[in-house]
Inverse folding.
């Protein structure tokens, strides 16, 4: 049996403030660190033994992974980082309050910007301070690769080559593979694995720091998928994510 473990990062400072984050590099809250550590304890207790890990370039995902591995006493594991696992770029609405934005533009418009398959938020300017072009960690990217805004479709398009060429092949030589990333980058993987429609993925919410397990046979055919943890707690977390962008 092969297992792919997906974990969205723990609560970030901007999650707590209900701000659109995207590629903005914000830290975990104290609660986010605790969430991540608890996820690691749960994985250890349930017998998961990842032998390779993947994460994004953003510290909220990196620190979530570090806390998970600390809890599992597996800090020595090899970790591969890729910008392709970064969160969806929310463009010019990064840093804005989600509820305030919904009050201004309406719940339906903000839902489209957050979750639709092919609608992009307003774009950043390439050379403004918030642009990834101004961040040294993305010097390797060409201007064409720099996302100034993204829909979920765009996020999946830049994610899936890495997923297909690097992450899934890792299951050939590793029984448990751990990926710690973001709500929308993980949403792209989930959509692919579960064969979800564009409409279904809009409504699907991934809770913070909650291991999401995909089990495969030795031919990497999906057998089952499930979240680890208390179902009531998981349902409450998922509803919390769904409510973030509703106007007050």
């Amino acid at each position: 049996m092969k297992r792919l473990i997906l974990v969205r990062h723990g609560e970030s400072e901007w999650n707590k403030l209900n701000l659109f984050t995207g590629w903005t590099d914000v830290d975990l809250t104290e609660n986010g660190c605790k969430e991540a550590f608890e996820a690691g304890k749960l994985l250890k207790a349930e017998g998961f033994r990842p032998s390779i890990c993947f994460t994004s370039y953003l510290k909220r995902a990196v620190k979530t992974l570090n806390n998970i591995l600390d809890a599992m006493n597996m800090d020595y594991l090899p970790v591969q980082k890729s910008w392709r696992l970064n969160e969806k770029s929310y463009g010019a609405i990064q840093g804005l309050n989600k509820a305030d934005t919904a009050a201004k533009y309406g719940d339906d418009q903000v839902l489209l910007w957050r979750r639709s398959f092919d609608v992009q938020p307003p774009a950043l300017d390439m050379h403004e301070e918030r642009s990834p072009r101004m961040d040294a960690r993305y010097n390797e990217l060409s201007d064409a690769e720099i996302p100034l805004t993204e829909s979920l479709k765009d996020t999946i398009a830049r994610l899936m080559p890495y997923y297909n060429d690097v992450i899934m092949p890792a299951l050939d030589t590793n029984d448990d593979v751990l990926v710690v990333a973001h709500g929308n980058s993980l949403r792209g993987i989930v959509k692919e694995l579960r064969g979800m429609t564009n409409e279904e993925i809009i409504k699907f919410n991934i809770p913070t720091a909650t291991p999401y397990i995909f089990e495969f046979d030795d031919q990497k055919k999906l057998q089952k998928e499930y979240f680890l943890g208390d179902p009531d707690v998981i349902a409450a977390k998922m509803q919390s994510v769904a409510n973030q962008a509703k106007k007050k």
